[in-house]
Amino acid sequence: MTEKVLSNPNSPHFSVGCSQSPPLIISGREIKSRLFLGTGKFPNTKTMLEAIEASGAEIVTVALRRVDMDNPQDNFIEAIDRKKYLFLPNTSGARSAEEAVRIARLAKASGLSNWIKLEVTPDPNYLLPDPIETLKAAEILVKEGFVVLPYINADPVLALKLQDAGCATVMPLGSPIGSHKGIKTIDSIKIIIEQARVPVVVDAGLGAPSHAALAMELGADAVLVNTAIAIAPNPKLMAQAFKKAVEAGREGFEAGLAISSDTASASSPLTGFLR
Amino acid sequence: MNLEALAQKSQQLTQKHFGKTILLYAPLYLSNECNNQCVYCGFNSKASGKRISLTVDRAFEEAKILSKMGFKHILLVSGERKDIISMDYLKKLVVKLRDLFSSISIEIYPMSEDEYRELFLAGVDGLTIYQEVYDREIYKKVHPFGPKSDYDFRFETPERGGRAGFHRINIGFLLGLGEWQKELQALASHAQYLQKKFWKSQISISFPRLRGFEPLNPVTDKALVEMICRLRILLPTVGMTLSTREPAELRDNLIPLGITQMSAASSTAPGGYSSSDSASEQFSVADHRSVAEVSAAIFAKGYEPVFKDWDRNL
Description:
Chain B: Residues 20-245 form the Radical SAM core domain. The complex is a heterodimer. Chain A is of the alpha/beta class. Chain A has helices spanning 45-55, 75-79, 97-109, 131-143, 156-164, 186-195, 209-217, 227-230, 235-255, and strands at residues 24-26, 29-31, 35-38, 59-63, 86-90, 115-118, 147-152, 171-172, 201-203, 222-225. In chain A, helix 1 packs parallel to helix 9. The N and C termini of chain A lie far apart (43 Å). Chain B is an alpha/beta fold. Helices cover 38% and strands 14% of the residues of chain B. Chain B contains 11 helices and 9 strands. Chain B has helices at residues 3-18, 56-69, 87-97, 113-122, 136-142, 151-155, 157-164, 180-197, 221-234, 248-254, 291-300, and strands at residues 21-31, 73-78, 103-107, 126-128, 168-172, 202-206, 239-242, 261-263, 304-306. In chain B, strands 1-2-3-4-5-6-7-8 form an 8-stranded parallel β-barrel. In chain B, helix 1 (3-18) crosses helix 9 (221-234), helix 3 (87-97) runs parallel beside helix 4 and helix 4 (113-122) packs across helix 7. The radius of gyration of chain B is 18 Å and the shape is globular. The mean pLDDT of chain B is 93. Chains A and B meet through helix 3 of A and helix 1 of B.
């Protein structure tokens, strides 16, 4: 497990003299972009590739149920340059730990990746993650040597348990997948970020660049976006907008936003006389 | 809300949940022999025409043709002849098909929960069963004879499938039998009920409009559009299926309205993919385009045709 480097000056862990923004490191690998992109729901491969390019993303997720794992020439896999992008397969469609573990193993065996975005979503309507099965699957997969990035509801205790189980990140949702509602789980996300020793990636529900910027301002290490870009009338431009929003949000966080403080900072402090 | 406003809303909701994609699948007709006498159907036991039941090997040969066309999702269809298309037959075929297809669904006679469980364990992941008509009086009139005349047994079929564990349950009524407004209400309640009760299964709805039979209550294109949009607004995450019963131009225009899956390049006669010496069809296909042509039309509408959206290991 790689412990994350905190850089917000408001953080008690802030090390004085740290002028350079620290990179995002997941499982020992430096990740250049804090925007992860999902590849589902695009109108065609060309549009998807243009959007990935414009987003500057390094990590792209792909649903294993969409690819033909028996066929290395699968169009979907072929389309994405795996030298340039880190391929993050997901287990979407899995309804139990058993199913998720099974397809993760197949992905690894077929040489796709040993990184796995763990999604156990027994309900096909809201696609909300099952916390019990997710933890069960994470424990198994970590032991088998996978780099596990679990998709979870914004549950701080679950996030800690997954972290203890050896997950490389936690990926709490802002609101249900595809809902475009933004960060409705903001209070829990704040707690998760505060407590996490692994990177926190806000996943799902981010419908506008401003939602992504907010996640980053809160101190999330990265965000994952899919639907908002894929179904936009101009996916390439939307990808670019999210890229800028993520960068701006991160810079805002690093610059030390007042947003991270829940109490007012008085201009005439009551304890000023102590100086 | 006027129809255009309904359509805009429907499109928006569909894209949010399903993206700009259309899943393509193909039906494989196993047999047109049937013990029922549904007055509207080409497989009616009283209807004339050539009757055929494919052997497991012949069915597998047909399936190979569909696999070569690129299909990964297949729907097995048959009339009601439990003695011919038996459990043993289905299991043998499904085991063979598992190597070629990532998703196998069935649209055959209603079965018991235990039978469905057996098929589910053999590798069938989806069940299609239409009530045909929710109005009990009309149901009785058009299903005068045979096992299908039992309304309640048929009505409870999706539930038996849900309990057996099917990932996908597809329901519908035949457009043209009952008054569509009333039927739509019943269908929406049915789908809603199934969604709540079988919350792990994807519930889908088909819009099979009667062909080759004088409809009791005709459904216009405009009514079809209104049905799709109203259902979408009521049930934003329900799958919506459209077969080749509808002509190419209409199918293309319905893509951006709420449809999420379509069949293509279909034959509705057993053996119809490998032979033109065809047996009786269940209904005559109206969209005769090839897979490539249908795919091109989907792209032209700004959507991606998807052939694999499931994995048999799930």
